[in-house]
Amino acid sequence: MRWLLRAGVAVALAFIYVPLLVVVITSFNSDSTFSWPPAGLTLRWWSAAAQNDGALDAVVTSAQVGLAATAVALVLGTMAAFALSRHRFFGRQTISLLVVLPIALPGIVTGIALNNAFRTVLGLDLGFVSLVVAHATFCVVVVFNNVAARLRRLGGNVEEASMDLGATRLATFRMVTLPSLASALLAGALLAFALSFDEIIVTTFTAGAEIETLPVWIFSNLFRPNSAPVVNVVGTVLIAVSIVPIWLSQRLSGDTAGGRL
Fold this sequence. Notes:
This protein has helices at residues 2-26, 44-50, 53-86, 92-104, 107-121, 128-154, 157-164, 169-197, 201-206, 214-221, 228-253. With 261 residues, it is mostly helical.
């Protein structure tokens, strides 16, 4: 049974990571197509990607949107976590469901709904602000989940002890609660930024014509002549960069567990 379980894990990991390995290898392919196996190995596509203005501008745009959406999500997600974890009131479970729901909805449904809200209901033009708001709707969820989980583990005894010793609520939050939440906030921020950085479906419906994030740039250049190798290079860089926030968020959340199969 143990060997069967190990074989199942190996198959699942291969299903996930072999395609990523193919992207990494083809980024060094001397051919300008997606041919496999590679006709030869070269670094010229890496040089071409580093000098591609469209890709570089898209990276900057994605970073700006991700940082802005993460900042909004940190504020709203933390406030929601405190409200739902520290207080008991009618409709609490319903509100908790509504906070988490955006990340469970299909992206195309969220995109269409937000597009209609911005253009039809509010009469706003699509652009940077609408894109940040759209990304923040699902980034809030990961921040909320991280902070709420940490608050459940902390309980309220330490905060009550601080106030019993004469500290005000603000001083207790600044000197006791916030330091205890720091790693959870950072983990949530890293996950929110990573989620925003590679989002494409909601972006397609809520970004203006002049806004092009990196996932949109990749999709639009994927099948253009001589652009496939550059797309593979960008994909390889994204794979490498994505490992860092995921690893850090896992370490900071403190939820890792050891064990053998």
